[in-house]
Amino acid sequence: MTAKKVTGSQALILSLLEEGVDTIFGYPGGAIMPVYDALYDFKKEVNHILTRHEQGAVHGAQGYARVSGKPGICFATSGPGATNIMTGIADAMIDSTPLVCITGQVASPLLGTDAFQESDIVGMSIPVTKWNYQITCAEEIPEVLAQAFYIATSGRPGPVLIDLTKDAQFGELDFEYEKCTKIRSYVPETHVDPQQIKAAAELIDTAKKPLILFGHGIIIGHAEEELKTFIDKTGIPAAWTLLGLSALPTEHELNVGMLGMHGNYGPNVLTNEADLIIAVGMRFDDRVTGKVSEYATNAKVIHIEIDPAEINKIIKADVPIIGDSKKALKMLIANVAENKHDDWVAEFKKCDATENEKVWQKDLYPTKPGLTMGEVIRITSEKTNHEAILVTDVGQHQMIAQRYFKFKNSRSNVTSGGLGTMGFGLPASMGAQFGAPDKTVVAVIGDGGFQMTIQELGTIAQNNLPVKIIVLNNNFLGMVRQWQEMFFEKRYSFTELQNPNFIMIGKGFGIDGHTVSERENLEDSIQKMIDHDGPYLLEVTIEQEDNVFPMVPTGASVSDIILEA
Amino acid sequence: MKKEFIISIYTENHIGLLTRVTVIFTRRKINIDSLTVSESAIPGVFKFTIVIKETQAQTMKVVGQIEKQIDVLKAFFHTNEEMIFQEIALYKVPIDPIYESDTIERIVRKAGARILEITKEFVIIEKTGHKEDTQALFEELNQFKVMQFIRSGRVALTRDPIERLSEFLKERDSFLDSLD
Ligand SMILES: Cc1ncc(C[n+]2csc(CCOP(=O)(O)OP(=O)(O)O)c2C)c(N)n1
Questions:
Q1: What is the pLDDT of residue A2?
Q2: Whole-number Å distance between alpha carbons of A434 and A432
Q3: Which of A79, A96, A108, A198 is 20 to 30 A from residue A472's alpha carbon, by CA?
Q4: Hey, what CATH topology would domain A194-347 get?
């Protein structure tokens, strides 16, 4: 490759192009203006999405990354621009989402002088980035960017932040790019140990009541096919974490549902009946385990995980398997015997019948007046043929959507899991639509969270993104209200909202929409939304004080899951 | 049960890494009793020696989190028994008591300490040893009103006959080449 003389800013864009970047979410400002100036000449090669707030940019990049499998790219200026992306970076860190964030920084001679819009973003972002680095000299740009992409996307993915001083953006260099394929101090994955596979296979073949728990690691590792083959061969029921959702089709006969606090009855209570837990690409979050000392009490644990630091962090693994989920599952499939567990699977069916009677019917096919979140989700899923990409915000609507939306395809569920970031949904849905332009993207958002990043309606309108936005309006910070009702004697302390006219707001941004509050109009309303050409905002007025059940209260064992109030 | 562990960390020389390592402790509210950083025998590779009082289980988890940091080459943890370790302490003591009796001289001899400098106003005494030893000397000398006292962080070596780091780096290189 012959080197050519370019500025640091041009080198940055050229590096992104070398990495196959086609979409950037960002917001300009003083300290990143040279980069934006360089971008002006690359309008054909790369699509820069100007959001309305940097939080929108970073969540947009996350949504893009989650559906496309490619790293999300986010630009922000120094100081407030950079601090505004911190929430999204923290969210991406805990949910293992690959991001490369570029922040502008004051010129290097000004570092540490409290210069205008100087903030120590490298220092601040240390605990929430997989890696970060400040570039103060243009020559460093290609190499550091190559490392950034390698680190963000390899092993257990995560966010990387590169802080670029203004003088580095203006400086000149001979541009040559070489992709990074290894870093001496970084082991993205280890070889799966065949001995461990043998030990695991032995446990699997002799278990009477085995249960698979799968998480985000299946999707990140592109191991969906292997997971399915493994399940089909062994006949073992499989339950998912929030971020594992959509890795296995909902209708797969051994998909027994969702784990954790608002998960399904069967997989929660039967976790304590199981004699073997096979956890793949998941990290035993406290929302999944409930009280750890009363979790999986009868089970041996096989833990397949790419990040060694997750092994024995919460739940002790009898057989830890460190490595890539796809490779590990392939090896396991070759080593396990064909099997069936009909009686054991029947226990899940029995639990389902209980949950159906106590919860599903009321949620999905209510007869009482007042719309439920469940019926909205059910109809939306049906009308999109269970092929839509679901993006949610955080709260009751999130749990209901995850419980009842059905999936045929992987990478179709985008939600903020580990951080539970309200305001994630709307910008993430726009990122998801950019990442999957041919799919229907449905954003399900609460009236509270909608108002946290509502300004991104502007970005959606400007780009005419056909996102279908459903606001489930209960005039409450519903999830908090539910806790107040259940655990704080119904003292509704600051959870009631006086909301604006959302439809008028949408119209103000140029986005069509309407409100529905009657059951007889619900189906048509959802149909209208889906058929609409372009973005659409459907506000559904739902019951104000509906609760999400089942529930494992904080600190309780998964066995003590509550089915009704 | 909590006890003392020595954590040894080999890293690349990158700005910000000290914070990356220390926040792993502070986030879990683990106090760092002692911290020493310096270049190792291999140029460009730095060694952190950190002493904490923790349970073995928690120490293992912390070391796992440290190793996860991109610029960390390798982290180990050891109990005190598994390592040879020392700290160094300096004591500034007024000169007058030295003229008046030989007590200080005897204390210094007995403690295996040495005198680094004598001025008209004070002497500087140096002692290496474990914290208990340097602390004991402090208490003895303090009858003469120690003017200043400083103790270093701990440095420690394993009882292994060879330095494993260069071997480790070679292994690491071939391992990384073996990944597709
Ligand atoms: C940024 C942020 N602030 C606060 C919370 C705490 N929180 C969790 S759910 C929730 C209520 C969400 O209300 P709404 O968006 O109306 O959704 P609903 O629960 O009613 O479906 C709150 C305040 C959070 N998760 N994120």
A1: 63
A2: 5
A3: A96
A4: Rossmann fold (3.40.50)
Report which of residues B100 and A298 the model is more confident about: A298
Query: Among partner residues A130, A189, A313, which is closest to B61 by beta-carbon distance?
Result: A313
How many other CB atoms sit within 10 Å of the CB of residue A2?
6
Quick check: ipTM above 0.95?
no
pLDDT of B163 higher than 70: no
Query: Using CA atoms, how far apart are residues A51 and A63, in angstroms rounded to an integer?
Result: 14
The residue whose CA is least distant from atom 11 of ligand 1 is A477
The DSSP result for A22-38, as a single string, is -EEEE---GGGHHHHHH
The CA-to-CA distance between both ends of chain A, in Å, stands at: 68
**Position A176 pLDDT exceeds 60:** yes
Query: What values do phi and psi take at A513, rounded to 5?
Result: 180, 170
Q: Which residues contact B53 (CB under 8 A, 6 or more apart)?
A: B2, B3, B4, B5, B31, B33
Residue A416 pLDDT greater than 90, yes or no: yes
A4-175 and A194-347 in the same fold: yes
**Other beta carbons less than 10 A from residue A4's beta carbon:** 12
Percent of chain A with pLDDT over 70: 100
Task: Determine if ligand 1 sits within 6 Å of the CB of residue A480.
Answer: yes
For the cut 70, the answer to whether the pLDDT of residue A167 exceeds it is yes
The predicted model scores a pTM of: 0.96
Q: Which amino acid is at B92?
A: K
Alpha-carbon separation of residue A288 from A258, A393, A424, B108 (angstroms): 9, 19, 21, 61
The CATH fold assigned to A373-541 is Rossmann fold (3.40.50)
Cβ of A420 below 6 Å from ligand 1:
yes
Return the structure tokens found at B30: 């683990």
Q: Which of A115, A100, A114 is nearest to A25 (CA)?
A: A100
What is the architecture, at CATH level 2, of domain B85-155? 2-Layer Sandwich (3.30)
A266, pLDDT greater than 80:
yes
Of the candidates B19, B16, B52, which has an alpha carbon nearest to the alpha carbon of residue B34?
B52
Q: Where are the domains of chain A?
A: 4-175, 194-347, 373-541
Q: Would the CB of A449 count as within 6 Å of ligand 1?
A: yes
Residue A14 has pLDDT above 70, yes or no: yes
Residues of A in contact with B15 (CB under 8 A): 134
The minimum CA-CA distance between A559 and chain B, rounded to whole Å, is: 27
Of A105, A124, A126, which to mutate for an interface test with B (greatest number of B Cβ within 10 Å)? Answer: A126
Residues of chain B found within 8 Å of residue A126, distances taken between Cβ atoms = 16, 19-20, 23
Range A300-316 average pLDDT? 97
How many angstroms separate the alpha carbon of residue A524 from the centre of ligand 1? 29
Computed from CA positions of residues B160, B162, B166, B167, in that sequence, does the dihedral angle turn out positive or negative? Answer: negative
Which residues of A sit within 8 Å Cβ distance of B?
Answer: 122-123, 126-127, 130-134, 151, 182-189, 191, 307-309, 311-313
Answer yes or no: is the C-beta of A426 below 6 A from any ligand 1 atom.
Answer: no
Cross-chain Cβ contact A191/B67 below 8 Å: no
What's the confidence (pLDDT) of residue A4? 84
B96 in contact with chain A, both atoms CB, cutoff 8 A: no
Q: How far is A11 from chain B (nearest CA, A)?
A: 23
Which residue, A51, A160, A564, A520, is CA-closest to B71?
Answer: A160
Contact A132, A162 (CB under 8 A): yes
In terms of pLDDT, which residue wins out, B43 or A111?
A: A111
pLDDT at A424 over 70: yes
Q: How many angstroms is it from A476 CA to the middle of ligand 1?
A: 9
Across A118-122, A203-207, A211-215, B168-172, least confident range: B168-172
| Domain A4-175 -> CATH class | alpha beta
